[in-house]
Amino acid sequence: MRGINILYIDSNIFIFASTNKDKLGKNCRKIIKLINEHKITCATSFLVLDEVMWVLKKNIGRDSAIKITKAMLSMPIKWIDVDKSVMINTIDIFEKTKLDPRDSIHIGSMKKMGLSTIISEDNDFDKIKGIERLNILNCLEKNQ
Fold this sequence. Notes:
- Helix 3 (47-60) packs antiparallel against helix 4 (62-73).
- The chain has a single domain, classed as 3-Layer(aba) Sandwich (Rossmann fold).
- By secondary structure, it is of the alpha/beta class.
- The protein is globular and about 35 Å long.
- The protein contains seven helices and five strands.
- The protein has a five-stranded parallel beta sheet.
- It has helices at residues 11-19, 23-36, 47-60, 62-73, 84-96, 101-113, 136-143; strands at 6-9, 41-45, 77-80, 117-119, 132-134.
- The relative contact order is 0.20.
């Protein structure tokens, strides 16, 4: 699973794809399409399912949140377990950076898999040494 070509995908891509009717949402839906077409190879933490369910439940309803997260599980994404090794990395990252705990878990998950690039609109990841953040537009430019 290790490799430069594998991107870590943040929860906000799925959230914007589901809730945003503007260009941002449209571009996130394009990224999801590219993943489903195996044109982008992604991994993400099971934590993303929790984040997506929580936000979607509040914004578009419980039934839609369930439907969307079930669809996410059927996507060709490598799902990363949040285990003890991830949490050891997470605590180290949380201690050394200004990231919040959830973002620290994402970086811990990336480190477990040897990943260094994240697709996210969250610029907090820009502060982390050794991590490259692709925003939605950069991701689309590199992968279309």
